[in-house]
């Protein structure tokens, strides 16, 4: 990957039964294009008495993207959505002016041993969409654009690239791409990307010039147009990026906004229980420190 500006290793933290690796943000880089938050969940083996239980919590000013490699999550939200996501599908929830959702192990798996592995991502909304009505969209795995050549397979999980468009309804110029190497191969995608770009090595190894990079590293460049790298057989990478926004984004807990005043109001509204409830889930995650 040409002109690498930052190399960042995944920082792991235990959250409940899960090992979560924070990829973005970090001190030197707060966003990649419109992407402001990327977490690597797992991999985690859960026993029959262990389950994912993230109770109702709020978001504003962003869209969330959930993409699983293994396992299943049941999503519920305050606009009435109720959907199980399985590997290869995409859950895309746009918070806009405010939404509440929960993420739990589906009922049919709660008494079984299970495996969980995936990515959770926040994409900031353009300023003119910051206070839009919340939405939820589920895209099945079979509907995600996929193609291959002799040495690698590709998926366009979200956005536009390679002359293709994912059906996930994004609101800015962005891309999230999966590439898996069947054999040792040179990936030359110069001219296919735009804006800023980050490449996350999920497993395996890539080389850029004389340097090799292994699993759980994210490489970030400002010149996405010049993207070439070598992949070892069995390597999987995820490329995130797009056009950055002209306005700075502020983040507080689960809130993203172009003004700190909006963040403070959202915090107050959540503490005062002014957000809508999630039908079928009576839980409540308090604001940190309250």
From TrEMBL:
InterPro entries: Pirin, Pirin_C_dom, Pirin_N_dom, RmlC-like_jellyroll, RmlC_Cupin_sf. Residues 178-275 form the Pirin C-terminal domain. Residues 26-123 form the Pirin N-terminal domain. It holds the Pfam family Pirin. It comes from the Bacteria. Belongs to the pirin family. This is Pirin family protein. It comes from Sphingobacterium corticis.
